[in-house]
Amino acid sequence: MLYRKLGVTGLKVSAVGVGTWQFGGEWGRSYEQREADAILGRARELGINLIDTAECYGDHLSESLIGPAIRANRADWVLATKFGHHFHGPFDRTDEYDPQDVVKQLDASLKALQTDYVDLYQFHSGPDASFDRDGLWDTLNRQVEAGKIRHLGISIGSNRNLYQTAKAAEVGAGAIQVVYNRLDRAPEEEVFPSCEAQGLGVLARVPLASGFLSGKYKPGAAFASSDVRSRRDREDSDRLLREAEEIRRTEVPEGVDMASWALAWCLAHPAVTAVIPGCKDVAQVEANAAVVSLVQPGHPQDI
Asked: What pTM was computed for the model?
């Protein structure tokens, strides 16, 4: 496994992490504890030490599957979760950034995760007005002082949100999470330069563009109604599939799996610390971990 320093946090993280939105049930299926145990157990065997989850992947459901799976080796993991939403049902969430409620969210996350601290606690894709909520960051920094949080981060909702990115150091955040992939390069314009200037770590989410860069789908493919991608505009989906096919034809080397190439492509950017792809099973964890063999040495955050 390849390891990098997550910016000014100093955390040593695997370049490939495990995204766990799927554990919350919105991928169209539910997970049992044994499945989470197998996925995270194999990830640890392969040297992966970064887990990203959130308060609203289910009502702390994803967290409640992660907690028992890593309880015996908690110190081996860099555990990142988020705050700012209440889950009411699939794709039904309400925002909540009141400082005292955020502390309750944190305590609920710690209980679900069966730990007394999180390594990275991230503002979860909220609007700028919520980001600037009176007392929010002072309250969060007091939780850092209390030892419940090791480091603060910001998961920006728009991959062009320079406002929140630029204020990261001011509020005490050391990492930015952002959508970044070969089909969506917007962060390269302003967000990444700001991250580099502040010494922030960067976690790239949706690195496979919700599967459009997996190599599994050809232009014209239709997704089942149970598939979250069926919620997309059909014309937009067709456009992405055509772009992905052109990338596969002109950029992916012969004999290289497209999904692996797409993850390695993200990791090549000097601002990107790690990718956090979702994975539905052990086989996908293994494929994701193998990506590091395609990554060239010399990245500025390599350890």
From this structure: 0.94
